[in-house]
Write a structure and sequence with these properties.
Layout (H helix, E strand, L loop, with lengths): L9 H11 L3 E5 L5 E4 L1 H6 L12 H5 L2 E2 L8 H8 L3 E8 L4 E10 L6 E10 L1 H17 L3 H8 L3 E7 L4 E8 L2 H18 L10 H10 L14 E2 L1 H4 L3 H14 L5 H8 L17 H19 L2 E8 L2 E8 L6 E6 L5 E4 L1
Helix pairs in contact: 6-7, 7-12, 8-11, 10-11
The protein binds fe (ii) ion (2 copies).
The site of one fe (ii) ion has 7 residues, from helix 10.
Amino acid sequence: MMKTNTLVSQEAFLEYVLDSMGEMLIVLDTSLHVAYMNDTAKRMLRVRGDTYVGLHFFKDLRALIVPRLNRPTIVEEVLQDGRPRHGIHRKLATGREVLLNVVPLCERGGEQVCGVLITGHDITDLARMERELDLAFSLTLPNSKVEHKLKNTPEFADKFDPATGRITILKVIEDGGYRHVVNALRIFAAMRAQGVTHVIGIDKDVLVQTIIFHDLGKSQPNLKPGDVVDPREVFEDGKLHAYRSAEIAANFYHLPADAVEIIRYHHHGEHQLPESFPWRLRPMFRLFQVIDGLSAAVTRGGVDVDFELHDCTLRVTEVNARPQYNGTWEIDLFTGARHKLE
Ligand SMILES: [Fe+2]
Ligand SMILES: [Fe+2]
């Protein structure tokens, strides 16, 4: 084993590391009895000393509130199939909220699962802040119908198979429409910090309205995780919901004509725009399409974005969970020219 330090024994060193971690760490054996907890876990689950050893994680400790429908529990699933699970949001009996990873433990080189390692961190404050922001944002929406539509339009995280052209649904984001709008507004705010609303042709209020209303005419298919579908068959052409959203925006909510036009054509390529589409709207049309695309990627997960503005050229840097997809590209909002940078 690599020599990690010369001050204390390996064993003592490991104990220091485990107990100084801000994350809670719990080890369960295959019969779900607790074998180990670090100091953070003991503090979060309100356990004293070593009294936890041998307690059944669910029946005795009862520290975690498990959704009733979950039979078997995720911990049991991991023990059964040996696959790790990440990012599980749970509430503790103390009321705190945690984000957990559950990882199988196997003897080195072996396949046999001999326990599970649960790590987790407290997200109570973060989750509360997010809820407060959500509430504050919903106040800015024109009425409860718009909020209801956004919160009930799902979006899907999927995996594309280039060989078959089909996608596998990985996750259903139930309030995806709402998340998509919130993420689009966040992206626009980050661009605004770079000065994008100083560009001629970009109007903050029109673009905010466009963002909120652009997908209200969307009707999503009923899909669940694991479904394998041909996206061209199950999802309708985006141009159709764009048309409906524009009708909704114009006739039920009396949005400015410029916002309605961008909404109507937001799934058109530039070369498909009608003659009547004025040049003065093109910079904002282009910017909206960039925001819409980036927000869709952010909402489905795994992407972060950064911006830089030079005159009327916006530089976008995408940071992906899989670094091979990282990239930087530029769009000239006046000419529409795009190019990829290293
Ligand atoms: Fe759309
Ligand atoms: Fe959209």
